[in-house]
Write a structure and sequence with these properties.
By secondary structure, the chain is of the alpha+beta class. The protein contains four helices and four strands, in the order H-H-E-E-E-E-H-H.
C-alpha cells in the first residue's frame, strides 16, 4: 500500500472525528450568527434605537441622573422583579439617548438625554444570543477553550479536507505513471 493511501485513510479518520466533535459548536455558532446578523432589523432580537431631543451633550442631564431615572422607570414597570443593578450605560449622542443596560435579565431602558423621558423599556435578546454565540454564557474560560478549539478545529478540517480532495488525484496520477513504466 502506498504512502498516499495510508495517509488518506488516517486523514479520513481525523477529518471525521474533528468534524463530528465540532458539529454542535458550529451549529450553535452558525444559528446564533444568523440571529446576530439580523439584530438591527428584527425588534424581538434588539429593541430599535429611539431618538431623543438633542444631540448636544451640554444640553443633557448628568449621567448619574439618567441612570437614576432609568432605574426608577424599570422598577416601576416591573415591581415584581428583584433589584437589578446597572451593568453599563451606552451613550448615543447622535441619537440623543442613553441606553441603560441592566445586569440581570438582559433588560434595557432607553432614555432621552435632555428631558430624561423614558423612551423604551425592553429585553435585549441580542445580548444573550451573543453570549451563546461566543460561549461566554457558560464562562470566560469556556469561551476561551471553545472558541480556540473551534478555530483550530476548523483549520484542521480545512487541511484534512484539502488532503482528502487532493490526495486521490495524486494517487491516480501516481498509479498512471506506475502503469506506464
Amino acid at each position: 500500500m502506498s504512502r498516499i493511501t495510508r495517509s488518506l485513510r488516517k486523514y479520513r479518520v481525523y477529518h471525521k472525528y474533528f468534524g463530528l466533535s465540532l458539529a454542535i459548536l458550529l451549529l450553535i455558532s452558525a444559528l446564533t450568527g444568523i440571529f446576530l446578523a439580523w439584530k438591527k432589523d428584527v425588534n424581538w432580537i434588539q429593541p430599535p434605537t429611539q431618538k431623543g431631543e438633542s444631540q448636544e451633550l451640554q444640553d443633557w442631564k448628568p449621567i448619574s441622573e439618567l441612570a437614576d431615572l432609568a432605574e426608577t422607570a424599570f422598577q416601576t414597570a416591573y415591581p415584581d422583579l428583584p433589584t437589578n443593578p446597572i451593568d453599563r450605560i451606552d451613550v448615543r449622542p447622535s441619537k440623543g439617548i442613553a441606553k441603560v443596560l441592566f445586569e440581570k435579565g438582559w433588560w434595557e431602558v432607553q432614555i432621552d438625554g435632555t428631558s430624561g423621558e423614558v423612551l423604551s423599556i425592553a429585553k435585549r435578546h441580542s445580548d444573550w444570543i451573543e453570549k451563546l454565540h461566543d460561549g461566554s454564557i457558560v464562562s470566560d474560560l469556556f469561551k476561551l477553550i471553545t472558541m480556540n478549539g473551534l478555530g483550530v478545529g476548523l483549520i484542521i478540517l480545512m487541511v484534512t479536507g484539502t488532503w482528502l480532495w487532493y490526495g486521490p488525484r495524486l494517487f491516480r496520477k501516481w498509479k498512471r505513471q506506475r502503469s506506464q513504466n
